[in-house]
Amino acid sequence: MKYPLKVNGQQLEADVDADTPLLWVLRDTLKLKGTKFGCGMAQCGACTVHLDGEPVRSCVTPISRVGDKAITTIEGIGTDAIGAKLQQAWKILDVPQCGYCQAGQIMQAVSLLRQFPKPTEQQIGDGMKRNFCRCAAYHRIKQAIQHAAEQEA
Amino acid sequence: MQIANPQRRRFLQASAALGGGFLLSLYLPPWRQANAAETDDMAHLSAHIRIHSSGMIEIMSVIPEIGQSIKTSLTMVIADELDADWANVIVETAPLDSATYGRQSAGGSRSIPSHFDQHRRIGAAAKQMLIAAAAQQWQVPASECRASNSRVLHQASGRSKTYGELAAAAAKLDAPTLDKVTLKKPSEFTLIGKFTTGVDNDAIVTGQPLFGIDVDLPDMLYAVFHKCQVFGGKVRRSNVAQIAKLPGVRHAFVVDGVDDFQGISSGIAIVADSWWQAEKARRQLEVEWDEGWAKQQNSPSFDQQAEQLWQQPPAATLSREGDVTQGFSECSKVIEAEYRYPFIAHGQLEPNNCTAVWQQHKLTMWVPSQAPDRGRRQVADALNINEDDITVHVTRMGGGFGRRLFNDYMVEAAWIAKQAQAPVKLLWNRQDDFQHDYYRPGGYHKFKAGLDANGQLHAFSDHFVSFGHNGRPLLAASMHASEFPIGFVPHLQYGSSLIAAQIPTGWLRAPTSNAMGFVFQCMLDEVAHAAGQDPLAFQLALLRRSDAKPANGFAPQRMAAVLERVGQLSGWGKTLPKGQGKGIACYYSHAGYFAEVVHASVDAKGAISIEKVWAVGDVGQFIVNPSGAQHQVQGSILEGLSQALYQKVEIDGGAQVSNYHQHKLLTMDAVPPVEVEFLPSDNPTTGLGEPALPPVIPALCNALFVATGKRVRQLPIKPEMFA
User: How far apart are CA B60 and CA A61, in angstroms?
Assistant: First the structure.
């Protein structure tokens, strides 16, 4: 079935089964490889993307439920002021170890900073606890969020 | 990990690159002779350094990147000695060519110790040649020239040339002998020791394809491979013919498999137009398995067998010093304790995958592998083809932790691609990953320790019950005969017995040490308390015994130094409120010395909070990249805490774990501050991927004892024991 999709501001189309998770449409049909597969059960957060600005786990979001919502992925988040600040902070503070979870971390952090522009430690803990980092680069992730929060947009 | 002959001497060779550039590579003469017909292309491919006439400098990263930051750290080493401007360095991943590059696997914290000195020399040699080329052009002695920021300068005349301008001339010079080049003084380092950010960071934060799972080829098909949940089970009957007719499915077939956890397993391959179609088709599989011997094994029966084996003397003696029987009879106090730890999984976040193309009896593969050389051998064996017919591209990988030292998924991808006669990407799902791991083996230790009238450790024994097959320990299920406190106790005996099991086991970050650190350092803490001594003072006194006979390169003064320092840093000895405690532990592994303190608290309901962790390490003379170094220590510590608090793989035929909810990771809300300090010492620089992990688990358990008076002797920790 054909699904028109708005991805990172571009109008695209995917011809896939209705139950295909958005993750696989992004990765394998649209060739946007930044969104990652980790657990397939909305546990780890590696596949986090935004639908109309809200974070969702794309591994459990069937394409049929996306509708006309605007999809934003790690490839497109740099055009968002908060997204750009976070990407910059991630680089300066050298957040990644293996780097595999970081697309999901950044997408989650964008929504955290939208909700809490100057988050407390506890807000960072609660907001980010569903994004696993197997390398446990958590200290740097936290520092980068705090660093980005201090920067002017 | 084995290397054929680390002493095989390599020679430097310079050559010209296209467009007037400069290439510098190492080579092994016999390999060169055997390939005398190789053209400049080969030299080009295998160069360590390429300097383009534009000034761009390419440096090869020779070790697979798994998150240990080696792609940045080792290339920094070349760039520093080369005096390259880091801003115009581009890091490329080296082809798999260990004749040129030496060891190309990521494991054992060995990358820095095996390449650090050589990489310095390669960088220094290139710089020497660029200086020589400039001196020749200016007709001045080379000793009057120096290099800085990708330029050679002649101060007296004020002349300078960029490396790009000198590249073509340098390529015509003879390369120096590797061990004759002059290295920088540490005070002259420009990069080594400086916080340097990862060379792939830009690509990571913008989601560019980097990882094995991101590989994409024209007309590529996608595969899943379904195996029996019971280890070693074989397909007896299935509905594979119906599966082959499902939408999008191009091939579905049974693989018979072999009786070897390193070879191809029995299973069913499904190859489809998309991974989702293959995965969906898999859900309709109906398979009757021949589950074999492994069906009868399970964790409760392992526990019972360990108890029974403990009633008998150990089946084998691992080490013996003095006479323990007599030693114990001379003791005024004897402490006995039993320790247990479970099988655990790696759970690296990027599921196993590999992309393979089979064309005219040759394979091309893209693989996230920590040991791609060995993977290539395994593929050659399984498919009965020549290694020379397999080209391997190593990708960045989403975590390793030792899992990708095993190449089962590489063999599967090769097998499926050959059968499908098409480019195929094999991708496991998370359940495959947890149920077909090479697990950290569980184990059981029955300790006995005796103190003499002065409160000194006088006798010590351990009966280690582990797992084996055909009378031999499973991989990573054995114990070093030199485990501390050997050499520091007059009477000591270690023995072992084996429980028969058929479980794929293997190396997990700090293999064996991740478990031995727990049991030995907790037991020594028990002994310290029984002796009425402060655990830090007790360990220091033990390390400083005048009659000590340290084994296996262990330097007690280095351990004593990190212990003392972590004591100072953590405010050791200060009284804490009720329900709180600090624990200390140290461990020597992978040539690194680490001592750690954990501050933990336990509330009335038994809930554990970790307030802070302090770590002090001695890994020799240099910390190459402080950013990566801090990452490795903090990551190792948090990983150790995840193991201690949450992780266990229950065995019932196979592994009873399907996803992270059953094998949890520490999450952002529970992460304590981790303060890290390095004590540089005048010793060779060694690796940091592993040695910080082992001490944190016993340090936590020892802290919980202080907080509650209760001993943790089994992992993972059950909070209800404190309620």
Answer: 40
